[in-house]
Amino acid sequence: MRYTVSIFKKHLLMYTLMTVVCLSGCVQEDFATPPKKTENSVEFSLSVFDVRMPSVASRSMVGVGEANKEDEVQSVDILVFDASVEPAVLLEWVEVESQNINQNLAGGSSKVDFSAPLTLFSKKVCIAVVANSSLPSLTKGTPKNDVLNSLIFQNSGKWLADADNYTAIPMYGEIEVAKIEPSVSIANIEMKRMLARIDIQNSTSNFKIEDVYLANYNTNGYVSPEWDSNGKINLTPIAPNMPSDPGKTLGAENAIRYQVNGGASYIGEIYALEASAAIDVGGVGEDGNASRKNATCLIVMGKMIENGVAVGDSYYYRVDFTQKVTIEEGTEVEYMPLMRNYKYVVDINEVSGPGFTDKVDALASYTVMSNMKTRVISYNRNKIKDVVYNGQYMLGVSVTDVQISQFQISEYAVDVFNVSSI
To answer: What is the rounded CA–CA span in Å between residue 301 and residue 305?
Structure first.
C-alpha cells in the first residue's frame, strides 16, 4: 500500500460561502435538560465519506441504498467552543431533535442535513458535531481538551452489525467559523467513524473458512480523533487515539466469533475500536500488553479442501495486522495499528498446511511461522473515495474527475493509493 500525491494545475475562480441559517433543537445553557427554542436556527450539512466500489448485497450494515446503515446518522449533538482563546472553552451544547435530521441513504448520498438553534457569537468559534453517541454531563467553560477526553464510547463485545439489528457507528467532525450570525449555513463538515472495519477475502482454492475470531480487542475508545493540549484536532494522525485504559480484553476464551460458513468474502461484519500496532520488545518473558503476544489480531478457523470438498479436522491460524515495507536493506514486515475510519481487507492468499487444533494454541503462536499467508490492504475512508479493483491490483484516488483547461495557474492535489503486487 502506498499513498502518493499528483499535482494538476488549473485556472479556477473559487467562491467560498460561509452561511449560517437556522436549526431547531434543544439548547442546554446549564447542560441539564435543555429548553426548546426556535430562533437563530442554523442549517448544517455533514458528509460521511466512503470508497465507491461495486456494492455487495449482504445481511450486514453494508448494503445498497437504504441498506447502507454504516453511514447512517441517527442522533446529533453540537458543541460550540470559544476558539478565540487557548485553550478553547465550551460555550454551548445543542442536542438536535431526531426529526430534524435528514439523510437519504437510498439516494446514494452520504450527506446529512439538519437544523438546530445556536446562540449568536461575534467571535471565532469551533463547532464540533458528535453523531450516534450519548454525551456525559458537561459544564459551560470547560476546556475543549477536557470535553474531548470525556467523550468515551464503550462496547464490550461484538459490534451489532446485522441489517435488522445494528448499532449506528459514533462519528465526530468539526469546523471553525469566524462568527455565528443570522442567515449563515455551515456545510461540508467531514464526519469520521470512530471504528475500524475489517473485511475478509479468501483468495485460495484449497481452504474453506468456517469462522473468524477477533482477539485481544479494546472495549473503550475516544469518539474524537487525536487532539493537542489546546483541543485542536490532528487532521493527519499516524497513531490511534485511545484512552489511558482502552479496556483490552485478552485471551482466546474472550475472542469474538464470526461465522463465515465457507464464504469467499466476509464484508461489513467485523468492527473494532482503535488499537496500537504490535511492538516486539524482546523475549517471551518481556512481552507486555503492547507486544506481539497481546496485539489485536484475528484467528481464522477452517478446513483444507481436496477435490473440491472440505476434509479432515478444522485448524486455527493466527493472523496479525502487518504490511511489507521497503528499507535500505530490503523488505521487512511492519506491524500496523487499527485506525479509526480505516478499512482493512485481510486477503488470505495461501494455505500451505495445517494450523493448530485449538484457538488457544493459535493465539499463542505469534513467534511461529504460519502456514497461512495473508496480505492486509488498508486505507483511510475519508481520504480515498474512488477505487477500482480487479481481484489482484487496486487503485484508489481522492478525486474522480479533474478538469484541466488551457491556461492554468492554480493547482490540484490528488491523493493516490495503490496496491500493485500480491
So the answer is: 13
pTM of the model: 0.81
Angle in degrees, CA 367, 369, 370, rounded to 5: 115
217 close to 296: Cβ distance less than 8 angstroms: yes
Comparing CA positions, the residue from 44, 269, 31, 71 lying closest to residue 170 is 71
Q: Which long-range contacts (CB under 8 A, 24 or more apart) does 120-124 make?
A: 120/40, 120/179, 120/180, 120/181, 120/182, 121/80, 121/82, 121/91, 121/179, 121/180, 122/179, 122/181, 123/82, 123/83, 123/84, 123/179, 124/82, 124/83, 124/84, 124/176, 124/177, 124/178, 124/179
Instruction: Yes or no: say if 127 and 88 are a contact pair by the CB < 8 Å rule.
Output: no
Which residues, including other chains, have CB under 8 Å from residue 217's CB and lie 6 or more apart? 248, 249, 256, 272, 273, 275, 296
Whole-angstrom Cα distance, residue 199 to residue 245?
A: 27
Hey, how many other C-beta atoms are within 10 angstroms of the C-beta on 332?
10
* Least confident piece of the model among 71-80, 355-364, 408-417: 408-417
Q: Using CB atoms within 10 Å of the CB of residue 62, give its burial: 0 to 12 exposed, 13 to 18 middle, 19+ buried.
A: buried
What are the Cα distances from residue 353, in Å, to 261, 312, 315, 321, 401? 20, 12, 10, 21, 46
Per residue, the 3-state secondary structure of 173-198, as one string, reads: EEEEECCECCCEEEEEEEEEECEEEE
SS3 28: strand
Structural domains in the chain, CATH included, are 15-193 (2.60.40.2580), 194-383 (2.60.40)
Q: What is the DSSP letter of 277?
A: P
**Alpha-carbon gap, residue 247 to 153, rounded angstroms:** 11
Q: Which residue has the cell 454504516?
A: 70
- How many Å apart are CA 48 and CA 338, to the nearest integer? 20
**pLDDT recorded at residue 334:** 85
Degrees (nearest 5) of the Cα angle 276, 278, 284?
A: 140
Residue with grid cell 479493483, as numbered in its chain: 389
CA distance 257 to 275: 19
Between CA 225 and CA 129 the distance in angstroms is 12
Task: Specify the pLDDT at position 108.
Answer: 56
For residues 302 and 366, give the distance between their C-alpha atoms in angstroms, rounded to a whole number. Answer: 19
Higher pLDDT, 388 or 105: 105
Which residue bears the cell 490532528?
234
pLDDT band at 307 (very low <50, low <70, confident <90, very high): very high
